[in-house]
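Summary of Year 1 activities. Much of the first year was spent building the evaluation harness for sequence design. The harness presents a backbone, in tokenized form, and records the residue chosen at every position. We chose the following record to illustrate the format because it has been used consistently in internal testing since the harness was completed.
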């Protein structure tokens, strides 16, 4: 028996465009970058400018990847997601996270995408969700998330000196840069910064790892200021500020806790590790030297949100 209406029904639900090997009509893999609404003072949380800059860099270093940028939050026209191999969110998180709006309808859509192998990524504030609202989904999609009062968000300058052998680290050289690097993430049980592991078919790899000193653990954190006793009690423990997963559904995911400061995209290694991740979750081969790109001061000044001056 044939069911000719099923494809139309699936399309109406937003499920049909996705598959484990989705490609655009011209045969390219497709990545959708979703930038949040304006937030924070100038040159901080520049979601629109950041995503547009990353897209420009991908055009330089990964021209075979089709990149769509959605500005100012979840799109009114969701057809932009049609045929996507990966979707990445860079936006305000917590209860305001765009993915948790519409009474859970968006979470359900993304969950269906991932069942078809679509990659999911999150940058900075975009890795934070309310635990009982979307924590289980984010642990399943990208391996972990920021949890208020469990994770912490100090301003500090980790020194990343060693990297695992992984496509995301190709061409990345040691670097040190000040940012609001979140740590003590709420990972899926068994996942830590100590090294790669696998659980229930999900492969986890910590990508950017460093040890916060006691002066970092003792705070202040950005909000709430802390210190939190459980953060202090973990003195000397390495922490993962970027990680990735390969899911049993065939999809990939990553989280990156930096990028509070827009100008950090001007650092070649900071930028490259994220560009590599964007390409990797889209299932495009990362070159041996990583994704090469060039950023000028003019590029960093482009597309900034109109914001009141910092007081």
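For this record, the design step produced the sequence shown next.
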């Amino acid at each position: 028996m044939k069911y000719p209406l099923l494809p139309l029904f699936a399309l109406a639900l937003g499920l049909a465009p996705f598959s484990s090997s989705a490609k655009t009509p011209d045969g390219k893999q497709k990545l959708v970058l979703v930038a949040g609404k304006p937030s924070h003072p100038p040159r901080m949380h520049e979601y629109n400018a950041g995503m547009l800059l990353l897209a420009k860099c991908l055009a330089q270093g990964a021209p075979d990847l089709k990149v769509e940028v959605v500005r100012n939050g979840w799109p009114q026209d969701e057809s932009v997601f049609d045929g996507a191999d990966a979707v990445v969110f860079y936006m305000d998180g917590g209860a305001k996270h765009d993915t948790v709006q519409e009474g859970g309808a968006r979470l359900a859509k993304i969950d269906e995408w991932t069942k078809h192998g679509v990659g999911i990524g999150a940058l900075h504030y975009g890795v934070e969700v309310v635990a009982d609202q979307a924590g289980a989904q984010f642990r399943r999609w990208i391996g972990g998330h920021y949890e208020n009062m469990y994770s912490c968000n100090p301003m500090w300058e980790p020194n990343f000196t060693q990297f695992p052998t992984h496509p995301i680290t190709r061409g990345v050289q040691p670097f040190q840069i000040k940012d609001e690097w979140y740590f003590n993430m709420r990972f899926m049980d068994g996942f830590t910064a100590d090294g790669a592991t696998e659980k229930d078919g999900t492969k986890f790899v910590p990508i950017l790892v460093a040890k916060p000193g006691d002066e970092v653990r003792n705070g202040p954190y950005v909000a709430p200021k802390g210190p939190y006793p459980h953060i202090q009690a973990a003195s000397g423990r390495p922490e993962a500020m970027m990680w990735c997963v390969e899911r049993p559904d065939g999809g990939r995911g990553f989280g990156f806790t930096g990028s509070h400061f827009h100008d950090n995209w001007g650092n070649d290694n900071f930028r490259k590790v994220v560009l590599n991740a964007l390409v990797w979750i889209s299932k495009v081969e990362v070159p041996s030297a990583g994704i090469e790109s060039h950023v000028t001061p003019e590029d960093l000044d482009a597309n900034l949100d109109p914001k009141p001056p910092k007081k």
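The first strand starts at residue 29 and ends at 35. Quantitative recovery figures across the full test set are reported in Table 2.
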